[in-house]
User: Which sequence fits this backbone?
């Protein structure tokens, strides 16, 4: 029987060595080493997070907040290093979702089996 | 370089063959094969889900709902097969959390590196 922790560490190594992770690492470091890009990226992150929090708490989002968020998104889209970073984040997210679908299959089969409904 | 999908499938197999998963599978099947236990378990699940949904939507939870939830939890705790199932779910959750911590380490290191803050 394969050891779960060994398999998890093998998978962690495979992720760390993947093209997707290394592309993301490079783009992230490119943005972080440029103070102007870093500041814009952090402002984008903060804005997204604030809106998400308000949504989760069921609070209304004002027109002004929507407008501010739209402005930051536009600035970010025009910044090639940040756009690249966001694309690379999306690629890694797809990979992580794939992995997650694979490893939760036993549970999904157990709980999703129509015989049990 | 290890292949990510191969590593993920190895991990899936390790989970499927684990003691934790097989204990959960046995307890789940024990509850599902007993109509009275199945019904109580599903009532518990539905109650938890309804309260969670209301919380996520920022809606108030009434005293009556709290009381209903408490009653179902008490019934469930007194049912040994369901208690066993819930313990086994918790054990598997601990395992899944462990795995998740291991495989998200590369990302955590990248985004959590204090040099980047
Ligand atoms: Ca690159
Ligand atoms: Ca068992």
Assistant:
């Amino acid at each position: 029987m394969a050891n779960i922790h060994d398999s998890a560490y093998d998978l962690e190594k495979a992720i760390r060595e993947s093209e997707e992770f290394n592309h993301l690492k490079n783009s992230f470091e490119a943005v972080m080493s440029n103070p102007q890009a870093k500041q814009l990226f952090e402002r984008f992150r903060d804005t997204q997070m604030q809106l998400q929090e308000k949504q989760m708490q069921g609070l209304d989002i004002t027109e002004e907040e929507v407008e501010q968020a739209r402005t930051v998104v536009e600035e970010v889209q025009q910044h090639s290093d940040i756009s690249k970073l966001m694309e690379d984040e999306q690629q890694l997210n797809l990979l992580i979702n794939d992995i997650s679908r694979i490893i939760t299959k036993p549970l999904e089969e157990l709980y999703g089996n129509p015989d049990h409904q």
